[in-house]
Every structure is written in C-alpha cells, then in structure tokens.
Design a protein that fits this description.
With 112 residues, the chain is an alpha+beta fold. It is built from four helices and five strands; from the N terminus they run αβββααββα. The chain is 29% helix and 17% strand.
C-alpha cells in the first residue's frame, strides 16, 4: 500500500459494506442527495472481501452510532481496537485504596 501512494488508494473501487446486495455484491460508495439509504460505511472492495460478517456489522454499527452532525463526513475505525477494557469503569476497593479502573487492580496487586 505504501508503495502505491495516495492516487492508487483513491482510485480503488470503494463499496458500502452497510448495503450489501442479495447476490453478495456491494453497492458503490456514497448516496445521492435525496436518497433514503442509511449512513454508508465505505471501504475498498479488497478490504470488504477480507472482512468477516461480524467485522462488517461492527464497523457499520459504530459508523451509524457516530451519526452525521453538521453535514461533514464522520470517520470511524474500520476495525475495533484489540484488547483493553470496553465498558463502564468499575469502582473497586482493593486493600483500602479505591480504584476506579479494573486494570489498576492488576497493576497495584503486589504494592498495596
């Protein structure tokens, strides 16, 4: 990808993974002005074909959850970050110290 440059990246065939056709193909990226289609999540066709169904659903869900405030396109990551704690922070009391993040419990385990 780095050898190809920006021009080749832009010229790739971009498709909307949020609007698959019944035969397994995808609609082209974007919407017309009066279109009733939902907010598109566009990726190059090569990437779309490598993604699993779950990855596609996740990417489309995050894109649509981000919304479209102000008419400017909203960018979201195609793949969710790996690992880490996803969810609300859990307050816990560990050895008399209040820890607001569960990963702190693992870090402070031998110190407190």
């Amino acid at each position: 990808m780095a050898e190809k440059g920006l021009r080749a990246w832009v010229k790739e065939k971009w498709v909307d993974i949020g609007a698959p056709k019944k035969d397994g193909k995808y609609q082209p990226c974007g919407r017309s002005k009066g279109s009733k289609r939902k907010y598109p999540k566009c990726v190059p066709l090569a990437k779309a074909s490598r993604m699993s169904e779950g990855q596609k659903r996740s990417a489309v869900k995050r894109k649509r959850a981000a919304g479209n405030p102000g008419g400017k396109p909203t960018n979201v990551r195609t793949f969710a970050s790996q690992g880490g704690y996803i969810g609300k922070s859990i307050n816990s009391n560990y050895g008399g110290a209040t820890l607001s993040n569960p990963s702190y419990v693992k870090y402070y385990k031998g110190m407190i």
